[in-house]
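Try this one yourself first.
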């Protein structure tokens, strides 16, 4: 998931078609924005999505993030971080479930170790005659306890069940590169979801739809990613340039939240997507993002590979993202702010003396 993959060069294909650039889930849409004007165009950051080639989306996104990053805003949150600290201390419900899930898996592993130890003792006590007997056939492997536990710890509410019933009945035949992009886009969506969930203390506000859409590069820039690392860095840059709270500690907390969501598997991801779907459905314009991406993700992820989802969560938990990776000299800014703060504290102490 960290190795960058070469994506199909859509720009050459776009020049040969009348439909123009493709976007949406699995790049199945085009020309959608031609019939919209005014505010409807503001739901995405990408300029002229119906004519901007896919090859230019990353360049536009990076330029847009650079333009939005505000050193003063970042330093203000760094120096006066009381609110951010309270947000970082908040424990989302899926983090609680994740802890219980890990405890369950540990008990399963401990039980398996004890069973193997008992088997060894019994084997040593066998007689030579018993040893000569043909071994019994191996038992068929049971279901992975990691996946069965997810059903135990992640439950759908009645409202969510009703939402699931209302989804279209579709099947998706995606090729390898498109499938990979879909999984990486899923990480991007969960990062934006986790930021909103944490910063609202699990109580959505009128700004939640804006936050989720703005912080997702899939939804705001129609970007297709090539590696997991690329997804995370792009998402972190969004979190430090657009929303109200912009702090490195908050970024790290959101990444851990995303790890918990993926560890809990398809069910938890579906719950998050259904909440996103509801947020956009209540918006006069952002319902279009459901049509382009979220509805399809709600359907597709129900049959997505549990092993791949688990692998993504594991790789994400191991990934190290440093401030220098973001590209805005964050460490230098923080060091300068600390020096200024120390000088001010020293001057205040001298004046008091």
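Now uncover the answer:
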């Amino acid at each position: 998931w960290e190795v960058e993959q070469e994506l199909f060069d859509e720009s050459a294909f776009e020049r040969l078609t009348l439909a123009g650039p493709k976007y949406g889930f699995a790049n199945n849409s085009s020309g959608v924005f031609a019939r919209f004007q005014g505010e409807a165009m503001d739901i995405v950051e990408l300029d002229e999505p119906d004519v901007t080639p896919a090859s230019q989306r990353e360049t536009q996104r990076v330029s847009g993030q650079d333009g939005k990053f505000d050193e003063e805003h970042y330093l203000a949150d760094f120096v006066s971080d009381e609110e951010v600290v309270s947000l970082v201390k908040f424990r989302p419900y899926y983090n609680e479930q994740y802890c219980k899930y890990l405890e369950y898996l540990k008990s399963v592993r401990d039980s398996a170790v004890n069973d193997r130890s008992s088997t060894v003792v019994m084997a040593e006590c066998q007689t030579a005659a018993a040893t000569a007997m043909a071994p019994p056939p191996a038992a068929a492997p049971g279901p992975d306890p990691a996946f069965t536990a997810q059903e135990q710890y992640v439950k759908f509410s009645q409202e969510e069940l009703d939402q699931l019933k209302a989804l279209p009945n579709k099947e998706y035949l995606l090729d390898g590169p498109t499938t990979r992009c879909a999984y990486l886009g899923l990480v991007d969506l969960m990062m934006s979801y986790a930021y909103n969930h944490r910063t609202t203390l699990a109580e959505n506000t009128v700004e939640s739809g804006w936050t989720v859409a703005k912080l997702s590069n899939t939804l705001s820039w129609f970007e297709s990613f090539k590696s997991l690392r690329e997804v995370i860095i792009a998402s972190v840059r969004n979190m430090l340039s657009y929303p109200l709270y912009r702090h490195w500690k908050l970024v790290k907390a959101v990444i851990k939240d995303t790890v918990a969501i993926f560890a809990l598997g398809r069910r938890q991801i579906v719950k998050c997507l259904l909440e996103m779907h509801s947020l956009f459905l209540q918006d006069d314009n952002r319902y279009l993002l459901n049509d382009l991406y979220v509805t399809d993700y709600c359907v597709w992820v129900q049959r997505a590979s549990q092993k791949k989802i688990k692998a993504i969560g594991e790789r994400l938990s191991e990934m190290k993202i440093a401030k220098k990776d973001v590209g805005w000299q964050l460490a230098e800014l923080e060091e300068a702010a600390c020096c200024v703060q120390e000088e001010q504290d020293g001057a205040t102490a001298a004046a008091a003396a």
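Discussion: Residues 261 and 269 are 6 Å apart (CA to CA). Residues 93-124 form the longest helix (32 residues).
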